[in-house]
Amino acid sequence: MAALSAWFWNERFWLPHNVTWADLADPAPGVEYPKARHLLSVLPLAVGIFAVRILFERFIASPCAFLLHIHAASVHWRATPNTVLEKVFTSITKCPDSRHLDGLSKQLDWDVRKVQRWFRHRRNQDKPSILTKFCESMWRLIFYLFMFTYGICFLWQCPWMWDTHHCWYNYPYQVLTPGLYHYYVTELGFYWSLMFSQFTDIKRKDFPIMFIHHLATVSLISFSYANNMLRVGSLVMCVHDASDFLLEAAKLANYAKYQRLCDFLFVLFAVVFFITRLVIYPLWILNTTLFESWEIIGPYPSWWLFNSLLLVLQVLHVIWSYLIAGIAYKALVRGKVSKDDRSDVESSSEEEVDTNGTNDRGVKRAFSPKVENGTNDHAVTTITWPQQIRSSSSW
Q: Domain named TLC: which ranges (predicted)?
């Protein structure tokens, strides 16, 4: 273990030339530098944030939802208990293909359409209600807004906010202030809490991708803390927090059926996203990490890794911006942000595909209004957030 620790914390990787861990171990009295062991305090904080979230959703978000006439809708049709189908549903697939449908139809002596209907009803039983989604989005809105406000107020007083050269002056001997520590640890604790809560949150199709997203975010924040790149890291966090609360606000408006407000907030989110991720991030953040830092401290191994990750993030920004632009265009042209197909309740009149892969009611449905659970599409419509956009604050 000692050999592994020595290899992992190799000074020649983590620190600039002629700097050792011993140089950072004993600063002057009253001076503190970031240390990796500080990150241990994040785990109990993450548990605390998760507990606060539970209380917030129960005692604040839920009453707000009820005031907006958002209630936990019951599933109209429940799947008939069936041991064989339940085993297939939990162990093999929730959306059986034609081969599975044929096999189950013969095994149970059921019509294929009846088997399809059973799986559709069973999937609907696991789908979250609009109330659950509303509470989750309201919690994220409050937290993102709080962190963005705190970040702006804190950075407004910091010299590196106005002159990014200060991110590298006297590096890595930069003092860890209480405000910077609290900003970093709270952000990191929140993403750790998302790691925990993802197993109890709304289960969406992008679960593996979002888990990797949260893991990457935790790793990047932890890396920059251990490497004392907190100054530029705080700028990165603030830039990413600038648009996230608008996304959650648009979701809340959508769940409350304020469609025009939803569309306006989403377009506003898109504008802020484009400005912060395609203009401010490359011209402000990448400029200082790539060029100003090169001039002041010079490159070293972890510097190359850090900048490589930031450049990869910029590529993701471009991809996300393209996806967001498509949704914003539909909101402006069609007057409505489209439906979320990742976690909504499936329609009882949903298209059912026969064993040949064709829909025997396709022509009829093409000329009929869309209905979901006996209501029009305005009753349960939700925003289509591409899986890469749903939590866009990763860095």
A: 132-333
Residues in the chain: 395
* Inter-residue contact 181 to 150 (CB < 8 Å): no
Q: What is the pLDDT of residues 224-241, one digit of tens each?
A: 999 999 999 999 999 999
Q: Which tokens in the block code for residue 371?
A: 């209905």
Residue ranges in 57-177 assigned as alpha helix (H):
62-67, 83-91, 98-108, 112-126, 130-155, 159-162
From CA 9, how far away is CA 14, in angstroms rounded?
7
- pTM summary value: 0.79
Amino acid identity of residue 136, one-letter, is: E
Q: What is the pLDDT of residues 11-58, one digit of tens each?
A: 999 999 889 999 998 788 888 999 999 999 999 999 999 999 999 999
Which domains does the chain carry? 83-126 (1.10.10.60), 130-334 (no CATH)
| DSSP labels, 101-130 | HHHHHHHHT--HHHHHHHHHHHHHHHSPPH
- Quickly tell me which residue has 């939990």 as its tokens: 90
